[in-house]
Amino acid sequence: MGGGGGGRGLSPGDYDSLQEKARKLMSQASGPSKCNAFISFATEDLSEVNLLRGQAKNEASGIEFNDRSLKEPFDSKDAEYIRRGIRERIRQCSVTIIYVSENTAQSKWVDWEIRESVAQGKGLLAVYQGETPPAVLPAAINEFKIRVVRWDWKELPKAIKDAAK
Q1: Which residues pair with 127 in a beta bridge?
Q2: CA-to-CA distance for 76 and 45, rounded, in angstroms?
Q3: Is residue 6 part of a domain?
Q4: What is the helix (H) or strand (E) element at residue 99, kind and residue range?
C-alpha cells in the first residue's frame, strides 16, 4: 500500500494558495508587526537619529520599526555604487522616515533618498525635534507634500504606522 494519504493531490497553485492563507493567519495571530523603515538624514544628525533608533528598540516607547537604513556611510566615492546600495535598503522597507533639522535641506543624499522612496512607492514621513520644524526643508518634502510631524514618542508610532504602506 502506498503512502499517498488518500485524498486528491494538490496542484502547485493549491499549495501556493494554502501557503498564503497560512501566512495571513499567522500574521493576524501574532498581532501587528513592525514595519521596515529606512531613515533618511543628514550625516551631521547621526546622534539624534541614533536616539530615535534607540527609542524604537525600547518596548516602552511604543515606537516600533525594523531599521533598514545605513548605520555607516558607504566607504566609496562612487556615487552610483552608493545609490545602488541605498536603493536596495529602501526597497526592503515600507516607509521612509526623514529626520529633518537645520542640516537636512543642504544634503543632496536626503533629497535623492526621498525621490527614490517616492519612485519605489514607499510611504514617507518627516520628523523633527523641538517645537517647530526647521525653517527650510528639502525641496522634495514640499514637492511631494510629505507629512511633517514633531518627534513625540506618544504620537510618532501612529504617524509611522499611517505612513507605512
Answers
A1: 99, 149
A2: 20
A3: no
A4: strand 95-99
Looking at the 3D structure of the chain, how many domains does it have?
1
Q: Is residue 25 part of a domain?
A: no
The kind and range of the H/E element at 142 are helix 139-143
pTM of the model: 0.73
| Segment holding 66, helix H or strand E | strand 65-67
- Residue 131 contacts by C-beta under 8 Å, 6 or more apart in sequence? 150
pLDDT (tens digit per residue) in 16-72: 666 666 655 544 444 445 788 899 999 899 899 888 888 777 765 556 676 666 555
- Strand partners of residue 124: 96
- In CATH, what number is assigned to the domain containing residue 50? 3.40.50.10140
**Rounded to 10 degrees, what is the CA torsion of 142, 147, 150, 152?**
-160
Radius of gyration of the chain (CA): 20
Q: Which domain holds residue 94?
A: 34-163
| Residue 60 to residue 77: CA distance in whole angstroms | 40
The CA-CA-CA angle for residues 9, 13, 19, to 5°, reads 90
- With helix as H, strand as E and coil as C, how does 15-34 read? HHHHHHHHHHHHHHHCCCCC
Residue 120 domain-assigned (yes or no): yes
Residue 19: inside a domain, yes or no? no
